[in-house]
Design brief:
This protein is α+β, with helices and mostly antiparallel strands. Helices cover 27% and strands 25% of the residues. It is globular, with a radius of gyration of 23 Å.
Length: 483
């Protein structure tokens, strides 16, 4: 029954194992080792998803899954894209898809079913024990064990039927309480504030283990008032099947692995954190955050926690963010009327925000500057941007070595770097500590690393093997050149 559900994590894992995209790891410790192994894994070329089993101190079969979205092949499989190991190809396929999915989402309202694999085990009342699951302590500096990183938090609006699904971090306090850090301004936090203002308990269902597509989409910006399950339905081209919590009535995927259901009672807060951010820093110390009193736990036999902790990039989810934002930036450049855009890449080193690169085929004087300023200040690129680089079409914008070679050899610093003052800053910026204004202002650099337009014909030629000859030699000498 469960493997017929397109959001069944186990069917996806079976497929990834058959395609040699999954590695099972036995005997690791929940205390720091899971995090360290996962972090080192994503830095490898050709990394695999990791399924940890026989975790120290826990029964065999209580598992943790990491690195689900950290390769083009796995990400393509999640998004129902043509399977590829080339991220530039994946970005090209993604162009226009978010707008298409958004426009079709309302046609794919989730559907309720009476039962699902998630109800194989139901813990109530005195049997509730969040500590039965191997929540990792991911890093030495973390303020506690985080059961929720690659999670999807389901909440409901106070004065409408709007169901929101967001990715917010979840720290274990004790056997029946978890901390929920919802960033101010995010949709889940807005819903929480409405309940708090009315003095009402806030209903919450935290999906700790689910198909990675759930957490991937719950971590992006969808329009206010839209349910992420509808958006996922548009990707799947069929409605998401949900069941409902016994206490709150909130929906969650019928094939979910683990779901915590409960309430945030008015005024119930505890210290939460510190925990790392997407850019690789502990931006803030421990702070007060709402507490969920867990009153039901639903889980499958041999349950799986889906983990995706932040860390210094590349981290567990930085690759998927880079791909998604690159496609959105590409679309934004084209929508703004910038011609000749060949490729765009939002680099993982900047958390897919702080260092972005576009390659263009230059067509007129000022073309590169136009592209750089739009890349820096468009809606997708403005928040927490830092450096926007424009290169010629012979440079792969995703290859940092090529990009910096272009910066080093095709720019005059005095002429080719534009600075924008008083741009959009953020308290989440590690450099906010040095902001000179109480307002969140920061600066931007636009680097024109293209060959000077007035010297395209006489700029020194590149000394390298031609693309045609490279292909011929690779084919002929594949045994010598194989990685």
């Amino acid at each position: 029954m469960s493997h017929g559900n397109p959001l069944d994590l186990r069917a996806w894992l079976d497929d990834m194992q058959a395609r040699e995209e999954l590695q099972v790891v036995q005997g690791a410790n929940w205390e720091l080792e899971l995090g360290a192994i996962s972090e080192l894994n994503v830095r490898r070329d050709g990394n695999k998803a990791l399924l940890f089993d026989d975790i120290r101190g826990y029964p065999r079969g209580f598992r943790v899954l990491t690195c689900t979205t950290s390769s083009p092949f796995r990400l393509a499989s999640l998004l129902r894209a043509p399977l590829t190991r080339d991220h530039n190809e994946l970005v090209r396929w993604l162009r226009g898809k978010p707008k298409e999915w958004e426009s079709r989402a309302r046609d794919f309202g989730f559907v309720s079913v009476k039962d699902g694999p998630v109800f194989e085990h139901v813990d109530r009342d005195g049997a509730v024990d969040v500590l039965k699951f191997p929540s990792p302590l991911w890093h030495e500096g973390d303020g506690g064990r985080y059961i929720g990183t690659g999670c999807a938090v389901v909440t409901k609006d106070y004065d409408s039927d709007w169901i929101n699904v967001g990715t917010y971090r979840v720290m274990v306090h004790d056997s029946t309480h978890v901390g929920l850090d919802m960033v101010s301004g995010k949709h889940g936090h807005i819903q929480f504030q409405k309940h708090a203002a009315a003095g009402k308990p806030f209903p919450v269902c935290i999906v700790i283990g689910a198909h990675p597509l759930c957490y991937l989409i719950s971590g992006i910006e969808v329009p206010y008032g839209m349910c992420e399950f509808n958006y996922i339905g548009a990707i799947l081209n069929e409605p998401v099947e949900v069941v409902h919590g016994e206490l709150t009535g909130l929906p969650f995927p019928a094939a979910a692995e683990i779901v915590l259901e409960g309430w945030i009672y008015p005024g119930d807060e505890r210290l939460e954190g510190p925990f790392g951010e997407f850019h690789g820093y502990y931006q803030a110390g421990a702070k007060s955050a709402p507490v969920v009193t867990v009153e039901r736990v639903y889980y499958r036999s041999h349950p799986i926690i889906v983990g995706s902790p932040p860390a210094k990039p590349p981290n567990d989810y930085s690759y998927s963010k880079a791909v998604m934002r690159s496609a959105l930036l590409f679309d934004a450049l084209v929508a703004a009327g910038v011609p000749g855009v060949e490729s765009v890449w939002a680099h993982e080193i900047g958390g897919a925000r702080m260092f972005t690169v576009a390659s263009i085929k230059q067509r007129y004087a000022g073309h590169a500057r136009q592209c750089g300023h739009v890349l820096s200040q468009c809606g997708v690129g403005a928040y927490m941007g830092r450096y926007s680089v424009v290169v010629d079409d012979d440079i792969d914008p995703s290859n940092l070595s090529e990009v910096m070679w272009a910066v080093a050899t095709r720019t005059d610093p005095a002429r080719d770097i534009d600075i924008i003052q008083n741009a959009m800053g953020s308290k989440n910026d590690p450099m906010s500590i040095a902001y000179t204004s109480k307002a969140m202002f920061s600066s931007r650099a636009i680097i024109d690393a293209c060959r000077p337009f007035d010297h395209l014909q006489d700029f020194p030629p590149v000394a390298q093997v031609s693309a045609r000859l490279q292909d011929e030699v690779r084919a002929k000498w594949r045994d010598v050149l194989a990685l």
